[in-house]
């Protein structure tokens, strides 16, 4: 009887301590902000709100056919971002479009070494690999490259890899996961130039591709791609024009409607060239994607791109990810 009372007392004490313990707060979402040369605005907003971004990923490097690096670093931007103590993980893509360098063990190894040396020499916090391979070819070569790259990278570097949602056959996640710290799921361009008008990234569509990826990748390795732009189509056409969020027109705002099913903003209106339909990721749509990332316990989000953002986007990020300005 005394033993039962003693055990019961311990259980009661444990329950009391659990109730008194402060709740465990989820880690703030990471935010990777891309930067590309087609920017319609500068980075004044980033410098005003540097804590809105975890990683700055500028499109500065490309791999050539011989495994060497093409360098497009902007010294002024590099200096300003470093002065604001923002971690830099440069984006590296394939300059040839064929990724033939992956098929040759020597050029593949040369590229891995060159990227790691670039990260070390620049004192960058990591790198973002954006090769976007074909659906099934080069899967083994891509895996081999990422293994080599991980081995060469400075200790503590963050290795990020961009993933095309519908190229599942290009990625051997079982072998990639130990080599990659985080994946950018490019969950945008559901509709774009070349398709008929529709949402850039309907939330149900995004949820479906996230759910599929979570079957092979831990959620804490996924950064959800978020568009900071939209498209305008002439009615009935598949030819679309990109509209950055910071360049949304007065007509788009005037006729804007919220699609509750797709959770994205659209507008249909008349222009001097005829009727058009626009779909774009408004602040409300961006917030829906942030909530999805929180709901699925993802690592964070990745904005394409900061040159399309304005101060309201940075303020949304600060508010939703729980960081101070």
TrEMBL record:
Q: Which residues form a coiled coil?
A: none
- Gene Ontology biological-process annotations: carbohydrate metabolic process
Q: Which UniProt keywords apply?
A: Hydrolase, Signal
For whether the record's keyword set contains Hydrolase, the answer is yes
Gene Ontology terms for molecular function: chitin binding; hydrolase activity
Signal peptide interval = 1-26
Q: Which PROSITE patterns match?
A: GH18_2
Boundaries of every GH18 domain copy: 29-325
The record's annotation in PANTHER family points to: CHITINASE DOMAIN-CONTAINING PROTEIN 1, CHITINASE DOMAIN-CONTAINING PROTEIN 1 FAMILY MEMBER
> Under which name does UniProt file this protein?
Glycoside hydrolase family 18
Phylogenetic classification of the source organism: Bacteria, Bacillati, Bacillota, Clostridia, Eubacteriales
């Amino acid at each position: 009887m005394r033993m039962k009372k003693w055990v019961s007392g311990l259980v009661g004490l444990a329950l009391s301590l659990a109730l008194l313990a402060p709740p465990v707060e989820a880690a703030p979402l990471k935010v990777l902000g891309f930067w590309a040369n087609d920017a319609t605005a500068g980075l004044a907003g980033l410098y005003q709100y540097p804590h809105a971004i975890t990683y700055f990923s500028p499109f500065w490097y490309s791999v050539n056919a011989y495994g060497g690096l093409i360098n497009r670093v902007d010294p002024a931007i590099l200096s300003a971002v470093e002065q604001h103590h923002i971690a830099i993980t440069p984006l590296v893509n394939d300059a040839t479009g064929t990724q033939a360098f992956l098929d040759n063990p020597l050029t593949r190894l040369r590229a891995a070494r060159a990227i790691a040396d670039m990260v070390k020499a620049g004192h960058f916090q990591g790198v973002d690999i954006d090769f976007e391979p074909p659906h099934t070819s080069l899967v083994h070569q891509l895996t081999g490259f990422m293994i080599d790259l991980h081995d060469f990278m400075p200790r503590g570097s963050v290795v990020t890899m961009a993933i095309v949602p519908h190229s599942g056959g290009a990625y051997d996640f079982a072998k990639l996961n130990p080599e990659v710290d985080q994946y950018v799921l490019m969950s945008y361009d559901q509709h774009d130039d070349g398709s008929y008008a529709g949402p850039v990234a309907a939330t149900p569509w995004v949820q479906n591709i996230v759910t599929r990826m979570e079957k092979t990748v831990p959620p804490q390795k996924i950064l959800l791609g978020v568009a900071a732009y939209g498209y305008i189509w002439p009615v009935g056409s598949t030819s679309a024009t990109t509209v950055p969020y910071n360049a949304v027109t007065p007509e788009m705002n005037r006729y804007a409607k919220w699609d509750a099913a797709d959770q994205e903003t659209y507008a249909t209106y008349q222009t001097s060239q005829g009727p058009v339909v626009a779909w774009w990721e408004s602040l409300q749509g961006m917030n829906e994607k942030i909530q999805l990332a929180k709901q699925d316990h993802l690592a964070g989000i990745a904005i394409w791109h900061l040159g399309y953002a304005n101060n309201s986007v940075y303020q949304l990020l600060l508010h939703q990810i729980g960081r101070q300005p």
